[in-house]
Design brief:
With 316 residues, this protein is an alpha+beta fold. Helices cover 17% and strands 37% of the residues. The termini are far apart.
Amino acid sequence: MQLKQQFHSCAESLHGGAPLLLEARETRREWRAHFRKEFLRGIGLLAAGALRLLVLAGAAQAGTTPQTITFPEIPNKAATDAPFTLAATASSGLPVSYQVVSTGGVVTVSGNTVTLTGVAGSVTLMATQAGSAVFAAATATRTFVVRNTAAFVKIGRSSHANHTVGIRADGTLWAWGANGRGQLGDGTTTQRNRPVRVGSASNWQSVGAGFAHTVAVKSDGTLWAWGYNSDGQLGLGDTAQHSSPVQVGAATNWQSVSAGTYHSAAVKNDGTLWAWVPIPITSSATGPRHSATARCRWARRPTGSLPQRVGITLWR
C-alpha cells in the first residue's frame, strides 16, 4: 500500500497533479462492477416477482372448488310424445344450461324444454354448469331413444265422445280428450289434445271407454280401471275417483272388457260374462238409466260395486 501511494505521489509530482490514467481505469472498473451488481440485483427482483405471480396463480387454480351435476335419467320416447322439461341441478346451486350433443335433428332444446321433431333416433343431451370464480366447470350427459310410433290396433271411444283410448301394436296404452275425472289415466285431470301414454306397461290387450271412466285388460289377465266412479263403475267396491289405473280384484283370467255410460262389463277366459254397476232392480219403469231388453231400472249402490257374473251363458 505504501508502495502504491509512493508511486502515485511520484507520478503526481511528475505530471503536475493531473489525474492518473491508472486511477481512472480503476474507477471505471469499479463503476462497471457496481452497475453489473445492481443490474443483476434488478433482474433477480423481477424474476422473483414473476415467480411469485406464477405461484399465486397456481394456488388460485388449485383452490378452485369442484362441483357435480345431477342429471336424472330420461326415459325412451315415442316420436309423437309431447315436449318435456329437463331438471338437472348443480351441487353449487348455480344455473345449468342444456345442449344437444347428438346429430340427426331428433329433438330441439330451448331453455330446459325438449321438443321432439317426429324423427326417430338416439339422442344425447349435455347439461353444463360453466363455473365461477369459486367453482370449476362441470358437465353431465344423458342418452335416450326416440322410436317411431306404432300404429293403433284397438280403439275405445267414450259413449259421450268425451275421450278416446287406444292400444298400439307395441302393447302400449294411450289416451286423449277430456280428463276432468281422470279418465285418461295419466295421473292428472288435464285435458289432452294429443295422445299421452298411460303408465309404462306395454302388455295391454283390451280397453273400453265409458262416459268418464276407462277399463282395460292386460295380457297377463289382470283387469284395471280408472276415472269417474260415482256409481262404482270402476268395480273396486267403492265410489272413489282415480286418475291412474287401479287393479280390479286379483283375478288373472280376464280376456276382454267394455264400458258403458255408468257401467262396465268383461269376459273371462272361460267365456263367462261379468258386469258391475249400476245395480238392476226389476221394474217396468223406464228412465235415463234402464235396460231396453230387461226393462230394468238402474239404481246406485252407495258403497260401490264389484264384478258380478251375468247369467249362465258362456260368451266366446
